[in-house]
Amino acid sequence: MSPFLLTRTLPEDATDAALRADVLHGLTRTPKELPPKWFYDARGSELFEEITRLPEYYPTRAEREILIARAPEIAAATEARTLVELGSGSSEKTRHLLDALPELHSYVPVDVSESALTGAAEALLAERPGLNVHALIADFTRGLALPGTPGPRLVAFLGGTIGNLLPAERAAFLRSVRSLLDPGDALLLGTDLVKDEAVLVRAYDDASGVTAAFNKNVLSVIARELGADVDPGDFDHVAVWDPEQEWIEMRLRARSALTVKIPELDLAVTFEAGEEMRTEVSAKFRQDGVRTELAAAELELTKWWTDKEGRYALSLSTA
Ligand code: AVJ
C-alpha cells in the first residue's frame, strides 16, 4: 500500500481555459478586474512567501501564534482522523495541527498546483511515514468530492483566503463545504479581522514594495501566458480600504493612456490615464459576521480564538 495518492479532478488544460475566460471577461467589463488567483505562478508564489515575512503583513504570524497555542484544543475538540486542507500550498501551517493529532489517519491536501501538492506530501511523509496522504488537484471553489477516509473529519481553510471571495461567493463556498461534512465533522476557518485602517493599508502597501511587485506580477502572467504586450512599469500599485464593504482592494492604476494587445485572445484593451483595475478583494471580518455567515450555511460556530493583539481569528464550527 502506498501512503501517497494523487487525484486530479481538474483537467490538465482547465487552468489555461480559466485564465483566458477570466482575462477576456475581466478586461472587457467596466470597471476592469482580474481575479486574485492568477497572482500565483512560481514568481508570484515566491513574492507571496516574501509578503508573509514582511513586518507590515501580520496575518501569517498572527495565525501561526493561534495555531501553536490552540492546536491541542483543536485536536481535543475535533478528535479528527482525517484532516482536509483547502488551498494547502506548501502545507507549512499544517505541521502544527499534525503534531497535535498523533492519531490522524489521513491528510487530504487540496490545491490547484500539482507541484505544490507533491512537494508538500514528500516533506510530510518524511516526518510522518505512516500517514496516508491523499492529495487532490482541485479548485475548491467548485464542487469537491472527498476520498472515503475515516472520520471525524476536520476541514481547514487557513490564511484568511476566504476574504478573497465576494459575499455571494463566500455563501456558496460555505454551503459547499457544509455539504462535505457529516455530523461530528468540523471546519477550521482563518479570518483576518477589521482593524485600524492605517494598519490594514500598510499590510497591503508595504514600504519595501514587495506587495506592489506581487500585484504587478499578474501582468507578467498574462504577458507570458497570453502574449499580452503589457509593461508592468506602466501601472502603479494601489491598496485602498473600503469601509462599507470592510475589505481591502488592490488595484493597478494605468500611469498614462495605453493599449494592451492580447493576441491569444484577439483583443486590444484600452486604459485611460489613471484608470484602475481591481485585482484583489481581501475582506476583513468581525465575530458576529463570521457567526452569521456560518449559520446561513448551517454551520455552528463553537470556538473563536484570536492572537494576543486581536488582529486575526481562527474559528471552529460544526455541522
Ligand atoms: C493569501 C489571500 C490571504 O488577502 O492577505 C497578500 C493575499 N494579497 N497581500 C491576503 C495577499 C496581498 C492574501 N491571501
From TrEMBL:
<feature type="binding site">
    <location>
        <position position="87"/>
    </location>
    <ligand>
        <name>S-adenosyl-L-methionine</name>
    </ligand>
</feature>
<feature type="binding site">
    <location>
        <position position="93"/>
    </location>
    <ligand>
        <name>S-adenosyl-L-methionine</name>
    </ligand>
</feature>
<comment type="pathway">
    <text>Amino-acid biosynthesis; ergothioneine biosynthesis.</text>
</comment>
<protein>
    <recommendedName>
        <fullName>Histidine N-alpha-methyltransferase</fullName>
        <ecNumber>2.1.1.44</ecNumber>
    </recommendedName>
</protein>
<feature type="binding site">
    <location>
        <begin position="139"/>
        <end position="140"/>
    </location>
    <ligand>
        <name>S-adenosyl-L-methionine</name>
    </ligand>
</feature>
<comment type="function">
    <text>Catalyzes the SAM-dependent triple methylation of the alpha-amino group of histidine to form hercynine, a step in the biosynthesis pathway of ergothioneine.</text>
</comment>
<dbReference type="InterPro" id="IPR051128">
    <property type="entry name" value="EgtD_Methyltrsf_superfamily"/>
</dbReference>
<keyword id="KW-0489">Methyltransferase</keyword>
<dbReference type="GO" id="GO:0032259">
    <property type="term" value="P:methylation"/>
</dbReference>
<feature type="binding site">
    <location>
        <position position="204"/>
    </location>
    <ligand>
        <name>L-histidine</name>
    </ligand>
</feature>
<dbReference type="GO" id="GO:0052706">
    <property type="term" value="F:L-histidine N(alpha)-methyltransferase activity"/>
</dbReference>
<feature type="binding site">
    <location>
        <position position="164"/>
    </location>
    <ligand>
        <name>L-histidine</name>
    </ligand>
</feature>
<feature type="binding site">
    <location>
        <position position="111"/>
    </location>
    <ligand>
        <name>S-adenosyl-L-methionine</name>
    </ligand>
</feature>
<keyword id="KW-0949">S-adenosyl-L-methionine</keyword>
<feature type="domain" description="Histidine-specific methyltransferase SAM-dependent">
    <location>
        <begin position="20"/>
        <end position="317"/>
    </location>
</feature>
<feature type="binding site">
    <location>
        <position position="57"/>
    </location>
    <ligand>
        <name>L-histidine</name>
    </ligand>
</feature>
<feature type="binding site">
    <location>
        <begin position="280"/>
        <end position="282"/>
    </location>
    <ligand>
        <name>L-histidine</name>
    </ligand>
</feature>
<comment type="similarity">
    <text>Belongs to the methyltransferase superfamily. EgtD family.</text>
</comment>
<dbReference type="InterPro" id="IPR029063">
    <property type="entry name" value="SAM-dependent_MTases_sf"/>
</dbReference>
<dbReference type="InterPro" id="IPR017804">
    <property type="entry name" value="MeTrfase_EgtD-like"/>
</dbReference>
<dbReference type="InterPro" id="IPR032888">
    <property type="entry name" value="EgtD_Actinobacteria"/>
</dbReference>
<dbReference type="Pfam" id="PF10017">
    <property type="entry name" value="Methyltransf_33"/>
</dbReference>
<dbReference type="InterPro" id="IPR019257">
    <property type="entry name" value="MeTrfase_dom"/>
</dbReference>
<keyword id="KW-0808">Transferase</keyword>
<dbReference type="InterPro" id="IPR035094">
    <property type="entry name" value="EgtD"/>
</dbReference>
<comment type="subunit">
    <text>Monomer.</text>
</comment>
